[in-house]
Specification:
By secondary structure, the chain is α/β, with parallel strands linked by helices. The chain contains 15 helices and 15 strands. It has helices at 22-37, 57-65, 77-86, 99-113, 131-141, 165-176, 194-204, 235-239, 242-260, 269-280, 365-368, 410-413, 421-431, 440-459, 475-483; strands spanning 12-17, 45-51, 89-93, 119-124, 153-158, 184-187, 218-226, 291-297, 320-325, 337-342, 349-356, 375-381, 385-393, 401-409, 465-468. Helix 10 (269-280) runs parallel beside helix 14. Bound molecules: 6-O-phosphono-beta-D-glucopyranose.
Amino acid sequence: MKRSEKGSGRPLGIIIVGASGDLAQRKIVPALFALYCQGFLPRDFHVYGLARTPMTHEEFRARLMMHLTCRYVPGESCAARMAEFLGRCYYSAGQYGSVDAYLDLFQMMRGIEGRQAVDRIFYMAVPPSIFMQVARALGDSGLVACGSRKEWSRVVIEKPFGRDRASSDQLVQEMGKVFTEEFTYRIDHYLGKEIVQNLMVLRFANLVFEPIWNREFVDSIHITWKEPVGVGLRGGYFDSFGILRDVMQNHLLQILALLAMEKPGDYSSAAVRDAKVSLLRCIPPPALDEVCVGQYAASPKGPAYKGEPSVPCDSLTATYAAALLRIRNPRWDGVPVFLDAGKAMNERINEVRMRFKGVPGNIFGGQVGELPANELVIRIQPDEAITMKVMNKTPGLDLKLEKTELNLRYQTAFKEEIPDAYECLLLDVIEGDRNLFIRSDELAAAWDVFTPVLHELESRRIQPEAYPFGGGMPEAAFGLARRNGLSAVQG
Ligand code: BG6
């Protein structure tokens, strides 16, 4: 769908709380610059950073500049565009939970914008543990306009939203006192990735997939996510969440929801999110023996998880997890869904593998033996691609069958630049499109899938299986896959 007319719209103030941090400087501001270069920000916009570190506007701009790229304005004009953009970025230092900090910020904004009505985006680029403090202080400072005035205030928060169903519900309720659901944008940045957005198009803008997208034809689904790096300097954060909360409960479950949901009535955010919620509610929580956990150990490729900065030496936090899920609905009942996610693994990959059932009545049997099953592989990253594995006759006088690929590789098929997920999501926030954001009932349904097993893993103090830094899937995960008929799962 076409984006709004470029450069139009009311004045906009984007307030980044936690502006000295990594998320703000490496993701949010570069994405805003990319939107600016393409003309997607209103003519009258400003970016305001708030954090605890004392800094001048100039120092703040110098920090931001280090992460801006000339992707959309190559050549000489890039420096000028950067200078224009940075000239609209301002900084104010203050404590996150202090009303005074926001009143000072407001004074500064008034000085820059005057008394006109300004729409505002509050981006909470701070740890989830202080979302509430920030929201309360913002509310008390009178800076938030949710429906009461003609300008709007939208809040953007990033997962993890809570640690389980109860804490997530509490967060939703408390935040709701300041920002109502309509103005709350919960980001799962995987929903902004190009191929994830394409899942619905692939399924619902093509005739050929729908008839085979069900238990009659699909043998199993595997969604895998691996990173070759460890937690590095994020050990403090990671240790209190672990891979199930950091990646599986959100990124992978969202991919599954889009892959497996029923066709929504239309493309509106209400209909799409209704369809996702219905799907998530059909997934019973996995039992303890349907989940396995691992933790990376030292190898020549990197340190042990327990040796990373800020990680306790007796940590039981999982850096790898695999889970077997079932979807109890007429479309998917009986099709095993295997999710796995790991840090410090042997490669960087995120892909979906949908394996189809074997071909009945193989007429080539005598010559080729068992026919391998077809597979649809959707590679989200890196090197975005959609591949269908099919049997084909090898050219020649003999009848020789070979497994080949129908391959749509984005790099060769499209000349367009693939935008960063944050560019797309921030533009959606500006335009008020909530399709790619997590609604509160969707969040609750996603927590319901994993909360019981998370509690059980923690209360029983289950020891994760050690795997070497840079190694493949832990042995227990292979066992789980094999026991449940997913023989094709690869490490
Ligand atoms: C984040 C997780 O949500 O996604 C990180 O907290 C992970 O642990 C990151 O590294 C991966 O994002 P991307 O876009 O680089 O695949």
